[in-house]
Every structure is written in C-alpha cells, then in structure tokens.
Amino acid sequence: MVRLPTRNLFDALMILPLTYARAMPDHDVERALADCFEAAVLTHLGAAPNGREEHDGPPPRLRVDFTYSTPAPGAALEISDIAWRLRRAANSARDRLEDRLNDVARDEELGEWEASLTATDQVRKLEPLIAGLMQSGEEIDTHELENEAIEAIHANDQTTYRALTDRVRQLNALGLTRLWKEPGDDHGFTVGLFMSRLLPAHDLGNGLADRIDAKSEVLREARQDQPGRVTHLLVRVTDGRVSKRDLETPPPLLPDSIDYLWVILRILLNDEARGLWIRRGDAAWSEFAEQIGPLPETPG
Fold first, then answer.
1. pTM, entire model
2. 260-266 and 273-279 as β-strands: parallel, antiparallel, unpaired?
3. Which of helix, strand or coil describes residue 273?
4. Cα separation of 165 and 152, whole Å?
5. What DSSP string describes 9-23?
6. How does DSSP assign 64-131, residue by residue?
7. How far is CA 170 from CA 68, 126, 128, 222, in A?
8. pLDDT at 240
C-alpha cells in the first residue's frame, strides 16, 4: 500500500528542473488531466463521470474547472499544480546563499568550491555549515558517508556506524549532499551552488496541504451550486519525480468540502507515471497507473 503524508511529508526526494513554470496548467493540459481522472474514476470507483462542462470563471460562473452531470448527483473536479511554487522559492534561496558564500570565499581566500544542494528551507543553517567546512578544507559527500556506514556495520563497529548515520541524517535534513573544492592554484575565490534537483518531500507535503487549503472553498461552492455533488481535487506534481522507496507515510486529511484527492507524479528511477488517490477519511493511499498516458511535462 502506498501512502503519503500531509504537511510533514516523508523523506522521499523529488527532482525539479530549474526553469519556472506557470501556476496552473493551460486548458489543453487540464483537459488531458481530466481525461486521466475520468479513466481512473471508472476503474477505481466503478462509474466514470459524464457530461463534462468547463467553468473556471469569475462570479456568477463557477470557479471550479469542471463539473459532470452524471452519475447523479454529479461531480466537480478542480485541477492544480504545486511544484512550480516550490521550485521558485528554492532557486531564490539558493541564489542568496551563493552570494553570501562567495563573499566569504573572496574575503578569506578559500579557493573555488562547489556544492550540491537539495531545495531546502534551512538556508540560515546551511550558510554557517558550508562556510565552516570551506574554512576547514573539509569536503563532504553523503553517498560516501553512507558507504562508510555500511562498511562500519559489516565490521560490527556500532559507534562509527551511529556517528556516520547521524551525520548523514543531519546533512540531508539541512539539504547539503556534496561539497568539494576545485583543484587549482587558488587564484579564484568563488562558490558555485548547484541545486541537485532533489526536493525534501516535506516541502511537497506543504505544497500539497497548500493546494488543499486553497481549493477547498472552490469545491465547496461547486457543491452548494448542486447539492450532493461529489468533489474531487487533482494535484499534479509538475516536472517532478519521487523515490518509489519512500512512499510509505499517511495521507493528508481532507476537509469536508473535498471528497477525493488524486495526485499524479513520476517515479525517480524509471520515469514511470503514477497516481495516488484517497477518499476523505482514508488512512492510506491507493494507486493508479494504467490510466496515465503521456502528458505534457510542463504546463503550457
């Protein structure tokens, strides 16, 4: 059973490119996502919604994206994306951190350094950590530390194993995966920070919770317009990937205005499109994959 959390998401990783995307998909993408939604509903709920009508307008029009007339009493579907918000904030934080570390490198003639970061909200804690490592000349690679931890456990060296795993856990929480010094004669004093395109999944959880909060009233309006309408929120992780290994955690709580939540994302290793869904009150996610065809990766 695949599960996802709410605001405190699992420690899965999501890959995000560094180009910006629009806040919402264009109408063609919305229609493709609605097709996918309808196929998934048919398979998993037993009756595909029919009689699709597009809305998404200012009052007196409904703000919800789509309504369906059958099966009675009908349904409403709202579509949203989240990754673009997370990506924009992460890039901005990275740029500010890079500027400050460049000042440190030049002032103290520390040479040329490069770092690989995850998108993180821990920038204030990352700055002294990276500056201190540069000043000491220490390079960091979390993958190497993990390998050393494996060797320590094989050697039955519990003390070293715990120290290394604690260090990796700390670095991952802060968002630093690798720091290395470029070879040379130290004539240049610069720092390059590269977003490794790995996003801590708690940020995805915050984004998902934000979409639930933002769209709750829109779907409530659709239900008030037609009492009894079943309401659905579909959230697509744009340009994103998650680690299949780390999808074990509880789903978010849905307000009474949202009956079903559907999430479309892609798996890290094989780029496989996957879907997760819950009905309000469910304690675990269900999966759908077979209905997801090729969709535009970035909103139009």
1. 0.61
2. antiparallel
3. strand
4. 10
5. --S-EEE--SS---S
6. SSEEE-BSTT-EEEEEEE-HHHHHHHHHHHHHHHHHHHHHHHHHTT---EEEEE---S-HHHHHHHHH
7. 49, 11, 14, 45
8. 55
Task: Give the separation between CA 231 and CA 286, rounded to whole angstroms.
Answer: 18
Fill in the DSSP letter of residue 249: S
Roughly how many angstroms between the first and final C-alpha of the chain, as a whole number? 33
Are the CB atoms for 5 and 110 separated by under 8 Å? Answer: no
Residue type, position 2, single letter: V
3-state secondary structure of 36: helix
CA distances to 86, 196, 246, 259 from 100, in Å: 22, 19, 34, 47
> Can you read off the two tokens belonging to residue 61?
């029009």
Confidence of residue 249 (pLDDT cuts 50, 70, 90): low
C-alpha span between 117 and 125 (Å, rounded) = 13
252, 253, 263: which is closest to 287 by C-alpha? 263
Report in angstroms the alpha-carbon separations of 257 from 15, 204, 227, 228. 31, 22, 12, 11
C-alpha span between 222 and 260 (Å, rounded): 14
Residues 120-176 pLDDT 10s: 666 778 889 999 999 999 999 988 999 999 999 899 999 999 999 999 988 887 888
Structure tokens at 6: 């709410």
For 223, the 3-state DSSP assignment is helix
DSSP category for residue 180: E
